[in-house]
Amino acid sequence: MCGIIGYIGEKEVVPILLAGLKRMEYRGYDSSGLAILGDDGIVVKKRIGKIAELEKEINGAKIPGWIGLGHTRWATHGIPSTNNAHPHRAKGGDLALIHNGIIENYSALRLDLTRKGHKFTTETDTETLIHLFQEYYRDCSLEEAVRMALKKVNGTYGIAVISRDEPDKIVVARMGSPIVLGLNKNENFVASDMAAFVEHTRDVIYLNDGEMATLYKDKIEQYSLEKEHIPLRVDRITFSVDQIEKGGFPHFMLKEIFEQPNTVEDAMRGRLLEDEGIAKLAGIEKHSKALTEAKRIIIVACGTSWHAAMVGEYMIEEFAKIPVEVEYASEFRYRDPIVEPGTIVIAISQSGETADTLAAMREAQRKGAVCLAICNVVGSTIAREADAGLYLYAGPEIGVASTKAFTSQITVLALIALFIGRRKRMSILDGREWVKEMKALPQKITQILEHNSIIKEIAEKFMNEKNCLYLGRGYNFPIALEGALKLKEISYIHAEGYPAAEMKHGPIALIDKNMPVVFIATKDATYEKIISNIEEVRARRGRVIAIATEGDEEIKEKAETVIYVPEVPHYLLPLVTVIPLQLLAYHIAVLRENDVDQPRNLAKSVTVE
Ligand code: AGP
Predict the structure, then answer these.
(1) pLDDT on residue 576
(2) Does the beta carbon of 401 sit less than 6 angstroms from any atom of ligand 1?
């Protein structure tokens, strides 16, 4: 979704906004713009394309001012164009607005405003908003005009507005889209993501839905849409600037893939007790009885988080013997789901801002379920609204294609399975074995990363393919789905993942010498079965790439290419078998000269429906 930033203070505004926009570029990157309020009124610069294009447009020109708004766009209403880029203006250019979200009733509002003589020059829903503010901005303060106008609005928004007539403030409001404020001496910030201003301040305020704030240079006032005063609650950011730098890697995605030995370790740090063979999860401890006695667990998520949820289903059902259902959040929220007493709902979201997952969790809460969350972004909306939850502690994930967050999500789900399993049926020996195996994972992932250059060579063989199938069984089935998603989203090659046995029921018709098939064929209970599936593909001259267990010589006869992973227990296989698939997709995308960190048409967190 879009990224917004606002600054009021004494420093030169343009460099601060441009740097902040670059930090949020992963949120949306089809066009961008700035609005600077100075002695000459509001100056707007905007341009289609990446922030670099906007920089060219500004071309180092000094735009004097003390207040500024910046926006990077992920188009929802109106094509990516310079004209549709934000900021949008009204009142002869004396009012400017940036917006992240969707105004659902914008066409009705626009019709009414047109009747009142307003002229619209863009296709965006956002332009309707600034004209609506203008409509109310008569004989009252900017915040009062915005507050009254927002009462007419249906939809989601994270906005910041400035006015030439009140050149000492930025007015912001939130409904459904993230807004975080940054506080510093004689300057204040607003942004969709704290990464945009972390190099200036670590003191932040998270706005909740239905809240507004007015930012002055030296103070912030927070209040509701009902005009109730809200005392400021300041939190402190924990991550550092270098965590949001590439650290010498060519892409954030590759850096994040190589961070996984540490991030998997960080996800379990202080949460595993070896002697007792248990998981200690303070974040959900108060719900341990409800979890252990749960009749049913529903996991809601989207995209890669949904694939992690599927692995969680396998683990919790096998070791805690509680029925688990994995639901697409977007379907769950509108399906009037059955949520009986004794149902626990787990929402999984890296960003903690995915609109469908947030709404699914709210729907479950409305139906009386205890809702736990597994999130990475500290202070995100899902994390704050859940009844309890666990953070991944994976640090900021900048690459749009999720990698380290995925393995950390699976690590945390393994901890939850152990947490419940040891309370219900697993013996202390089982538990100790589990803890020992989990603690060995970072080293094993490091071993796989040493194959990076081999995997790059394999990528060269498959970089021009048009299609690809990924097949796995059991715990590796969700990894087949994840491998296919990674390839799709960054290489733009059409790829599909299937349970290997499902292939015979249709997809096998796709197999010929031009169809690479990635088999996740590690040594586990279904090994013999998957070897037969490989034979079925070879019989139709499909090109087989196998992810296999170290020491498996037999598979070399069966596959054109083999990538080995260290041996682990079947329930931890996803944490090793996904690594080569992340690297394979990464190298194929780089070889195809795609923008790996910001793939076309995607955004890091999907804050609209
Ligand atoms: C994964 O690589 C994608 N970026 C996308 O599928 C993502 O997993 C999905 O949008 C869910 O995001 P979340 O975990 O932040 O909720």
Answers:
(1) 98
(2) yes
- 407 CB within 6 A, ligand 1: no
Residues 394-411 as b or e (16 or more Cβ within 10 Å = b):
bbbbbbbbbbbbbbbbbb
Q: Measured from the CB, is residue 489 less than 6 Å from ligand 1?
A: yes
Please name the residue ranges forming H helices in 90-153: 106-115, 125-136, 142-150
DSSP state of 213: E
Cα distances from 195 to residues 192, 263, 379, 386, 398, in angstroms, run 9, 19, 13, 23, 10
Which of these is catalytic: 50, 444, 486, 604? Answer: 604
Catalytic residue, from 2, 302, 371, 468: name it: 2
Contact 559, 534 (CB under 8 A): yes
The DSSP output letter for 500 is G
Average pLDDT rounded to a whole number, residues 317-327: 98
Q: pTM of the predicted model, to two decimals?
A: 0.86
Q: Is the CB of 351 under 6 A from ligand 1?
A: yes
Least confident of 157-166, 236-245, 306-315, 533-542: 236-245
Look at residue 100 in the predicted model and tell me its pLDDT: 93
Of all atoms in ligand 1, which is nearest to the CA of residue 302? 11
- 604 catalytic? Reply is yes
Sign for the pseudo-dihedral over CA of 269, 401, 29, 80: negative
- The bridge status of strand 180-184 relative to strand 31-38 is unpaired
Specify the ligand 1 atom closest to the Cα of 382.
16
pLDDT value of residue 242: 67
Ligand 1 pocket, 357 CB below 6 A?
Answer: yes
CA distance 594 to 493: 11
Q: How far, in Å, is the centroid of ligand 1 from the Cα of 532?
A: 34
Q: And the tokens for 599?
A: 């793939």
pLDDT given at position 261: 98
pLDDT for residue 244 is more than 80? no
Compute the Cα dihedral for 247, 249, 251, 254 and give only its sign.
Answer: negative
**Which residue, by CA, sits nearest to atom 6 of ligand 1?**
303
Could you identify the atom of ligand 1 that is nearest to the CA of residue 489?
A: 2
Which of 142, 43, 163 lies closest to 91, judged by CA?
163
Give me the DSSP letters along 501-570: GGGGGTGGGG-STT-EEEEE--SSTTHHHHHHHHHHHHTTTPEEEEEEETT--THHHH-SEEEEE----G
**131 burial via Cβ count (<10 Å: 0-12, 13-18, 19+):** buried
Backbone angles phi, psi at 120, to 5 degrees: -110, 140
Of 165, 121, 162, 175, the C-alpha closest to 140 is 165
CA distances from 316 to 69, 298, 321, 546 (A): 47, 11, 6, 27
Backbone φ and ψ of 86, nearest 5°? -95, 160
Indicate if ligand 1 lies below 6 Å from the C-beta of 305: yes
Confidence tier at 238 by pLDDT (50, 70, 90): confident
Residue type, 299: I
**In this predicted model, which residue has the larger pLDDT, 40 or 307?**
307
The three state secondary structure string of 385-404 is HCCEEEECCCCCCCCCCCCH
How close are the terminal C-alpha atoms of the chain, in Å? 10
Long-range (24+ apart) CB contacts under 8 A made by 238-244 are 238/378, 239/198, 239/395, 239/396, 240/198, 241/198, 241/199, 243/395, 243/396, 244/23, 244/195, 244/198, 244/396, 244/398
Is 478 within 8 Å of 313 (Cβ atoms)? no
